[in-house]
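haha ok so turns out i had the wrong file open the whole time. this is the CORRECT one, sorry everyone. sequence first:
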Amino acid sequence: MEQELMRIGVSLPNNLLEKFDSIIEQRGYSSRSEGIRDAIRSYINYHEWMGDISGRRVGTITLIYDHTKRGLSNAIADAQHDYTDLIKTSIHIHLDPENCMEIIIFDGDGEKIKKLDENLISLKGVKYVKLNTTPPAEKL
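then structure:
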């Protein structure tokens, strides 16, 4: 069954578009539209997967952020303090003069983990967030 295609406009910074075009070429897409559709499907799948995170979970949240962004380091620390019942430890790495990486290791309720992840994603100056989670070993 053929679906009707809708045309949309998207504004992107040049460096992001150049990176996207490079990926499109490497992966052999016939057009930007094909690459964008694939990226949107991946984004939707990720959010559906996030909806299934429940019960006790263990894992990590990795984030990269611009520590020169005013107030961001404090906002990240505040978010972690709000979830001290989940967070077992974190590792902080200086990547270069502007960027830091934080790896947060957690064990706790999946719904609360999703909220922590979403709080971190929403902070201005956070460039990358990746949640990796699984049920604890006794459930595998």
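The chain has two domains: 14-50, 55-139.
again sry for the mixup
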